[in-house]
Amino acid sequence: MFIENKFATLKTFMKILLIKIGLVAILIFVLSKIPLPTKISDQKTLIKNTPVSSPTVKSAVDYKNIPELADILGPDQEKRLLAGRKLVERVGVEEALEILEHSSLPHTGEGHLVVHQIGFYAYQKYGKEGILKCKDYFLFACYHGVIIEAAGEKGVDAIVQMTDTCKSSGVRFFQCVHAAGHAILAMFDYRLDEALKTCDQLYEQEKQFPESLSSCHNGAFMENLFGVHDWGTGKAPVRDWLKDDDPYFPCTAFGEKYQRGCWLNQAARIYQMYNGDITKTAKACEGIGNRTYVEWCFDNLARQIHPLTNGDTTQVVPLCSQLGDYWREGCIIVNAGAYYSVGGRKESLAVCNQLAKQPQNICFEKIMGQIIGDTLTIPEKLDWCDKLPDPFKPTCRRQLQTAT
Length: 404
What we know:
Elements (H helix, E strand, L loop, with lengths): L4 H11 L4 E2 L2 E2 L12 H6 L25 H4 L4 H15 L1 H9 L7 H18 L10 H18 L1 H9 L5 H18 L4 H12 L8 H15 L32 H15 L4 H9 L4 H18 L7 H5 L4 H17 L3 H8 L4 H17 L4 H8 L6 H11 L2
Antiparallel strand pairs: 1-2
């Protein structure tokens, strides 16, 4: 994509950024357009004079004797999940979150799923109050776990109450509603049509964050594909809304309102059907016909590449090159955003730096938007603004100052 027309298409492509981290959704909205927490406007007069310092974090060396880390950092995802559960049962929610955030666990979908286990435990130990113990690490994975677990026990009312507690931040609320989509489908025993209607009932009238409806749809389509809620339960999977001989189902079974949520997940299904063949999956995305749906499909395909890098940013370009020249730059930018969203902020900048000048500017612009919409403190945001190259560094600071 992307020389002259190419770059116009790239900008359109980037507006639909939604990261799915490997097995689970990573929703990247255009964060510069998401309303920021009120406290930012309350503190904006402090920005000019706020000293910038790196946030204090525990060194990974503090955790060298954690017994569960061998499996958590190993290659076997099943062992990772079991070890994550053992860790939180042994040390508690808060300490487990800090250990994983500051360990070398890759900021990919697999890492996100490990942190789901902490959310599951938080609910089982503290009930709905468990969500207050979560932190935003690994793309709000703890929040996902709490909401998914609560919905299975308490139903729709619990979902609404818990997602409402996330409204202090736009990006956090979108993630909580996304988790609700997962939970709703599991509640309805994987009857996708009923789950989508329930998303409509709960979030179609949401005024403060109108994009949340699509977020709920996205979570339901993702749960249909991966069965996150079913993992470790011993239940036989129910997947009436998947067809092994139709790469475009279930998207073709629903109306226009649901297409975005579906196609932003469908490449993961196609990728499964073609046994992880990126080139064949790309051809299938091209074959959809509708150009908007094609772009959504390629966005999702780009997000399948993120976990394949296993935290090594030098792998992004060769893997994205398998999508073909037209989609290559867009894929790289999606991966930069994916790294940022799951907590790999430093890695996101490294990915942008691998691009040529024009797409690199688009990449840094998107990362700047994510910094501004992040749930970090003002000093932390300023610190990340200052890691951007000019002209994005001063622009980022100015936008923080004027954010409302």
